[in-house]
Amino acid sequence: MSVEKLTTAFSLLPATSILSLPVLISVAFLSVFTFLLYPGGLAWALSLLNNPGRRPNSAIPGPAGLPLVGLGYAFASETTHRILAKLAKSLNAMPLMAFSVGLTRFVIASQPELAKEMLNSSEFADRPIKESAYELLFNRAMGFAPFGDYWRNLRRISATYLFNPKRIECFRGFREEIGRKMVEEVKGMMGRNGNVEIKSVLHYGSLNNVMMSVFGKGYDFSRKGNDNEGEELEGLVKEGYALLGIFNWGDHFAPLKWLDLQGVRRRSKALVEKVNVFVGKIIEERRNVRSESVSEIIDANSKDFVDVLLDLEDGENKLADSDMIALLWEMIFRGTDTVAILLEWVLARMVVHPDIQAKAQAEIESIVGTNPVTDSDLPRLTYLQAIVKETLRVNPPGPLLSWARLAIHDTNLGPHFIPAGTTAMVNMWAITHDDKIWTKPNEFNPERFIEEDVSILGSDLRLAPFGAGRRVCPGKAMGLATVHLWLAQMLQNFKWIPSDEGGVDLTECLNLSMEMKNSLVCKVVPRV
Ligand code: HEM
């Protein structure tokens, strides 16, 4: 019996009749029981009460989950994407599955058709804002800003001045130099320790790269001497990353939010103070330099992003200092980890698949020879690009696309009614591991992308690691340019082999991005 029918039956009973008390209790019990078992769980059942006109036959299939908690346990796990994929399959809810986490309603698409409809629809162009993101000022940065004029302005500014192909091209020399420094660092590490723990090298290189494009500022790679600003920044990024990755029960249960049991608010406030000082100082320094050299005309393409934002101070798009800090901080934050995490997965795959590694090295040799690889070689390294695509398919940094969407109004997805305020997600991992879409999906096989050229930039939802639609990742071209170049440099310079302890542990751990649970530790043999 549906919730609606039970409620109607309940209201027709003469509530004051003592004789009907046992009947009343049974009906009440049944109502609560049915309510808790409603497809999608508590939050969906409650939404039915708010939308009494809605017929339950349009209910989206989904697990009721645990009482009150719903599927909260899945989000507290390290492999949420796998748990959700398994549930969707077992409930025949691959196109769309409903579930609840506390009082939050979710839908998740695990097939390309509804995923495309969701990501491309302006009805889903907002993002749910978690407490950590709010406290860390991200509601004023691009990633979490509500869909509207402010967000549109940030997107336009960064597309024009930070992510356009000319700007990316402009920083090629710097990317190449960081790649060379990382090669030296790997050599040094191997000499000192007899093995390489690549994650820290990639993280620092990536941070430096973003700092240069955003702040026009690099850090000493060797991290010696008094200049520990780079390390300080790295610490801030790590803490922010940890805070955004925490599954915060308070986001789904209002009373817990107030109690801040996990300390998310407390830690976020402490972090944001440090970020304000760090980024605020860089902005102030730049203002001073600019006021001293007013007559200097800076070429638009060699300006860094701080200059661009300061230029806006003379016009109607002027940003408040706090908004500037939020935007700049988000760029550092987003640009650093995704690139480092993806490259660590690719290199882990190279150690696990020596034949594929050798093929990529042969390609580099035949196209580049022994000259150092540069940006201009990359378009011809098609097998290397196929390796990156295959890694994004098998080990995507964002298996659930990292940042969910929010239904702005009441709307529909396929035949289903979605109430405003529902959190909408895509299980990209489920799509890229679906054997109806990919042959032998669990096999690491870059050749599949030589046989068929699949775009990964958001037009083909079989593989959209950067999302799609209005809120697609704006840094995708910059991210890919960096990953391709550094991978080519690493493969040209070294053969990557297992450490003496043995193989590579490919266990996943989903924080904000999906990382290797145990960082890659391997050995390298110089090739050139
Ligand atoms: C391998 C590298 C990267 C991956 C896999 C990646 C992935 C993603 C994904 C899945 C989204 C959500 C898209 C959606 O909702 O449809 C996103 C958003 C975003 N990414 Fe990236 N990203 C990468 C690199 C970068 C870089 C280098 C930057 C900047 C320097 C960046 C900045 C952003 C921003 C600002 C957003 C939010 C956009 C908005 O909401 O309007 N990303 N990214």
UniProtKB/TrEMBL annotation:
Binding site for heme: C473
GO MF: heme binding; iron ion binding; monooxygenase activity; oxidoreductase activity, acting on paired donors, with incorporation or reduction of molecular oxygen
Listed CDD domains: CYP78
Cofactor(s) the record lists: heme
Transmembrane intervals: 12-38, 58-76, 88-108
Record keyword Flavoprotein present: no
Presence of keyword Oxidoreductase: yes
Protein keywords: Heme, Iron, Membrane, Metal-binding, Monooxygenase, Oxidoreductase, Transmembrane, Transmembrane helix
Similarity-based family: Belongs to the cytochrome P450 family.
UniProt name for this protein: Cytochrome P450
